[in-house]
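Reopening this one. Same input as before:
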Amino acid sequence: MIRRNTWILLVVLAALIGLSFYLQNQKTKQAAQATPTQGTTTLFTADSGLPTDIKIESSTGQSVEVARNASNVWVVKAPTEAAADQASAEAAATQVGALNVMGDVQLGLDVVGLAKPSYTVTLTFTGGKTHKLIIGSITPIQTGYYARLDAGAVQIIDKQGLDALFTMLTNPPFAATATPASTATPIETSTPEITPASATETPSVTETATKSP
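Same output, byte for byte:
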């Protein structure tokens, strides 16, 4: 006859075996979900138009923003308002259109760093439509960032493309300014003080007149 303690041990052992199978199954399922779908597409299509405003904010408080003004010229709006280097700003706009989506994943926002994003990118395109892209953790193989566009599905976006945009946080595309020419400091010369000549007394007529005999 099997003792009561033995039955308890058998039940515990069975429970442990069942838990082990469950955890292994969950691990396999999670690994499958974390594998991005095959194929690479761009995040924005030609139908999205061209970027007219690019704003990047980091979780550390840094921010940069470039936008086209009424004259269709790029200007820097943050961290301070200033003229923009047109080539650098245009390169950033081109990079936005070239961002590649490496695949979708089915993972929780907290797992991939999107519950508290590392970066927030706000983009406005021709036509006035605005998109919000939040960026989370880097993928385990260091080739992409977990990201989410407009509260959509979690995606993996090419790390190289996003890093190119993030460089603007530390190096805003300000226009180069010419170094002002140095001017010689004028030498002060003292002006000699002119002392007015002392007035000469004009002899009185009565003093100079000769008395007649």
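So the earlier flakiness isn't reproducible anymore. For the record, The beta strands are 41-42, 51-58, 63-68, 74-78, 82-83, 100-105, 119-125, 130-138, 144-149, 154-158.
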